[in-house]
Amino acid sequence: MSLHNNSTPLGQPAIGVDVGGTTLKFGLVSPDCQIRHQFALPTNAQLGVDAVLARIAEGINRLLDEQHEPVAGVGLGVPGVINQRGEISYPPNFPGWEVVPVAKRLRPLLKQPLPIAVENDANVAALAEAQAPGATDRDFLFITLGTGVGGCIISNGAIWRGATGGAGEIGHLSVAMNGQLCNCGARGCVEAYLGQRYMTALAASQLSRFPESLLHTMLADGKELEPKLINDAAEAGDPFAAEFLQEMGEILGAGLASAMNLLDLHLVIIGGGIAQAERYLLEPARRSLRARLMQSISRDVQLRPARFQNNAGIIGAALLAKTGGSW
Ligand SMILES: [Zn+2]
Known about the structure:
CATH architecture of the largest domain: 2-Layer Sandwich
Structural class: alpha/beta
Order of helices and strands: EEEHEEEEHEHEEEHHHHHEHHEH
Strand order of the largest sheet: 3-2-1-4-8
Number of strands: 13
Mean pLDDT: 92
Low-confidence stretches: 1-9
CATH class of the largest domain: Alpha Beta
CATH superfamily of the largest domain: ATPase, nucleotide binding domain
Bound molecules: zinc ion
Strand content: 15-25%
Shape: globular
Distance between the termini: 5 Å
Largest sheet: 5 strands, mixed
């Protein structure tokens, strides 16, 4: 159950926690969705479930210590699928986690008895786009490009979860029947091209054929090969980088088109690391998308970067806390 009224800001501040495989980000978010105070702690995921939950509680308690007004609740965005009972199942990059009832385990560790809502991290970032003050879009596909490729379907302003909470996995739509092997076990998934590690490995495997590429100089300067660096090279006029990203954009557009044709959605919002790569990634994605859409959709389709970038996880999680979360 959740409330979805874009014109009503949060009444009290809420705490949003973005739970990542390497970093935990904490923020106290005001009623108008401004982050009043934020900090990060290392996740230390290798230490196991109890240690990570204790670290999450430590961060929340620190914010509660500093905050003298009442807090509405705590929201957490976590990787992995969250089921109807609020349990997270096998989150990637969290060794030792199987099925963990996060809110239930966290509650006794907090200084105050606050409501705790838990949701998948891509869903949380999508919620920020759908429900923060000023949001006007009620139906869209959200995709986040990071280590993995996450997604969420927003329908009538709310997260569309599917039967068991796992809907929206656009990263695992297949764009090539016998394509690259994906971490999920299937072939040709969007993530097997657009996921950060896959994209980087693909670029690395092609780079040796382009000795003129600016990327060689950038790497010799100690920079790390990653999607953002490829975009920097493209922006600096490197033809290899530009063509490589354009191909990635075409693949992205093909995956998005399948989802939008299926769902009759007319808007895609892209978040994550390289969502700002407008010229070399988003524009080719737009062209590829339009070329593959049913005519009924293609006339007014839009693809745009997310309003909230680095802080989407914290703000979305705080909104989740306020609306009471999921299901
Ligand atoms: Zn996959």
